[in-house]
Amino acid sequence: MEDTRHIRISDFDYDLPDARIAKFPLERRDSSKLLLYRHGEVSEDVFSSLPRYIDGGALMLFNNTKVIQARLHFRKATGALIEVFCLEPYAPGDYLLNFQSRGSCQWLCMVGNLKKWKEGVLTRTIPLDGRTLTLTATNLGTVGTSQLVRFAWDGDVTFSEVLEAVGELPIPPYLNREAEESDKRTYQTVYSKIEGSVAAPTAGLHFTEDVLQALSAKGVECEELTLHVGAGTFRPVKSDDIGGHVMHTETIAVRKSTIERLLAHGAAAVAVGTTSVRTVESLYYIGVQLEHGGDPGDGHIHVGQWEPYGDTPSISPERALRNIIDYLDRHGLDVLHASTGIMIAPGYTYHYVKAMVTNFHQPKSTLLLLVSAFVGGDWRRIYDYALSHGFRFLSYGDSSLLLP
Q: Are residues 283 and 352 in the same domain?
């Protein structure tokens, strides 16, 4: 673990000109470029050709999270503009229950222009279904690095409906532009279902119904899991080495049937996006916890940042999955709910992910560390190719299929 902690983030820097950052998506999702890294060789194609490179009978895992319109703007009587960015539900703490709340709920938030909101209640109107409702926000104080905000509104509507009416989509800050109406469609995957993310699982943005049907026709099995992407995904590594960086925690949910399907596929899968990678790889350490720490009962299951690099005796990937299935059976559960702060960096051993679809990530980011760990440190050759062959970078950019 010490070797991993001492990795210098400066070794994962590269020059990314602003002109190479895709500010908007292409008109057709699957017309983006696809870099192919296969057993050390680099080439390219278009994304619509992806199915020809996936073996029939393979299992692909997709993150079905849906981006919420998490940015709310309020203006004080003084004219000061306050932005409240919903990060994580607090009361109720469950995403679904919180979105279904009527009348009030609480969220951990990031507040822009916080110094102008020392006290008092913020108010704004909500135009909804021909009516005008009132939404208020009260800052209840600091919790960790966030502000605890209580939202309250009149009318018999849910908080999900409130966000849909007045919230704004939180597109990535590096796009350097305001969200547009078109982003509500283009910044969601075609298979998004479960509300909760403040950032899209961007590798999935390239998939169209045509690509999904082509995969199905080839015999590729597609399963969905859920990781709600937090704002921490954009947090830069500011420490000299990664041991000083604190990974953000994200909630995950995986159906028992998906875990059984993964086991039936020899504990091997193609992961679509780094969020799917973090989710499925976290399953191994949950299985290890169940093996060595006993049954947590109704307690919360969490995978810690450095858990993969500890000295806990390892078990087979298949056994880890069986441990989770047994746990779910004992408690009569159909879905595994947990959280993860897993750090995947050089020195990490992948357990389930045998191929990965992913976009091109920011310099000096934890996502670049994850990719480097997967390709045996060969990330720079991949990125040099992408930069010299006209690939577009980051969320709305092009994609890659990595087959080490």
A: yes
